[in-house]
Protein 1
Amino acid sequence: MLLLLGVFIILIMARAPIAFALLISSVTYLTRYGGVPLRVVTQRMAAGPDSFPLLAVPLFIMAGSLMNTGGITERIFDFARTLVGHWTGSLGHVNILASIIFSGMSGAAIADAGGLGVIEIEAMRAEGYDDDFSVAITAASSTIGPIIPPSIPMVVYGVVAGVSVGGLFIGGIIPGLLMAVSLGIMVYYYAVKRNYPKHPKATLPELWQSLKASFLPLMTPVIIIGGIFTGVFTPTEAAVVAVIYATILGTVIYGELTLKDLHRILLDTVETTASVMLIVATASLFGWILAREQIPQLVAEGLLGLTTNPILLMLLINIFLLIVGCFMETTAALTILIPVLLPTVTSVGIDPLHFGLVMILNLMIGLLTPPLGMVLNVLVSVSKVPFEDVARATMPFLVPLIVVLLLITYIPGLVLWLPRVVMGI
């Protein structure tokens, strides 16, 4: 295990791509100590992505790209501005509301930051907001995307943990709204402190015009979540519906999507999906080695040796996951750590669905923390603000997110109540 983990950590510190770090460390271990033929490598890597629910991943990636290119995100932002632009903090609250709406379509924080982020930062700059505040609230609000359904990390967790993806989707609604409220409080604090401008309250005719212009995009989360709630389609099928609906809106209704755009979106989707699935495949091999060497059992024994108190155990795991999120990509962290941590938490009576939301929110916070900070890197390219300044500005906004993390950790009903009511889970 020292060889396996040592090679992996050295490669990560050398900034090797996570998939190659997983693969090289696994092959190094198997060559030296495995005692199995190396064809196991290809077998295990092929088995990892071989899952029907994972079909949703490329489809939600594509749906997010279609919405960003087809004029949907602009309409969502304009509607949010009309609705809450008169609140103290104006475009900060607009930023959060737009992320809530967009999160019901894309399922990925990166899609939110890269798509809505461009519009939000430009609009806030035009109205005199400081760059540090604009980038920070854009980064923080983008983490709502994978918590409010649909969610690509929830699909991955559901597949690896054997938990209902639909239950995870529904369980994320209340935590996602809590994140929005907590970030809204931070926006209000900054707005009062820095005397940020706000818009006049929209009149009823203005609200009606904005609603009409954005009605069809706003129906996207209603169709996706409503279809899953009512059992009309599965989460995987919901991803297909999202792609079809976004394509119709962008091409037929708004006419902003061209064949050239579609070709580029398909290529981008293939590229992104390939990188995600390569991580899933190599993490599957890595995880198989950990399981073969009974590492999950050793971790469980070690943690339970420290404490069997669920409160203290979850605190230790939260600290561990926050650290992991600083260094590891979300999909890799999920596929590696779920088999390690899930047996431990279930042994003390923690519901796997509840733990899934806690784990995903931990890793979403990791998207905002150096040195990896994938959302931070996206916003650096969007805003042209140096990475160090973006990271520094985002730090205060981690506080409300960690508060929500503690709330859902120690009040399981915030996650489990809605799935039990809707799905009887």
Note: The longest helix spans residues 259-292.
Protein 2
Amino acid sequence: MLFTIIIPVYNRAQVVQRTLDTVVAQTHRPLQLVLVDNASTDDSMQVLEQFRKQHDAPDFQVIVAQETHHTAGAARNRGLDYATGEWLMFFDSDDEMEPSLVEAYAHVLEGQGLDLISARSLLVFPDGTSCEAPFFKRDIFANQILHSQLATQRYAVRREFFNATDGWNIDLPGWNDWELAMRLLLARPRIAFMDQPPLIRINHSGNDSITGTEFHTRAGQWERVIDIVQNEVRCSALRDKTRYYRLLDYRRLVLAAHYQREAHADLAKPLAQKAYASLRNTYDDNLWWRWLVAPVTRWLFRRIVDGKRGSARIARRLF
């Protein structure tokens, strides 16, 4: 069973070697690794080429490519041009995988006729603290909307199935994996969930992150992605769409709360008003909305502004 691992790289010369070391350490063979330099201005390309020279082998093929359109989605799509594996894995250039990750995927997938498999992961923060990322086996659409369960690093997907979903949106600089995962789910994959302890380390790299650490600097871009996903839900055969519209409005409220937390009330207020109005309309401004949903939603908003965690789990039950 051949897996192709695609990793876009942009100005990661100082950290990408750590990621590459965890890929070459995989116990599963054969593997194909496609590295795509996304117009780096540092020595990333040299690091990738040196890795290729050292490790390219019949059972561990290493390809180094380039993509000038500067988004991770464009770089990942470029990597697809070289992919020959039955299964695809997308990974970021500063994260790590345990040596048994691909082997664990292969063990679950063997002979099962699946399209996608989701794995647990560990979030590691710049201060060294860590926690397990939310992982659920049920209510997958809601949990993707609220928790981004199928983040870039957290799944493997059958290449044939993936290619039928039009690939990555190259014009989205942020939340592109969230949008892609919703399209994958709307295509109704046969999906499995791995119960093993986390085999993936997602390193939150602070200011070096491609999407940054602040939301207000890209105001409008996040809203556009939510609008795109809402239109995809609207055009789908998904049942109970009203619930997912509500969850997307809640995501708008979360974004507005982040704007407020970053002292940008000018961005927070109109977005929050839009989300509240949309939510109210889905309930026809009934007593359930007035006496329960609206007060709890406003309370959740204040919790997020105050930096408290766990609000999404409450929202999933509320809506």
Note: Residues 206-212 have pLDDT under 50 and may be disordered.
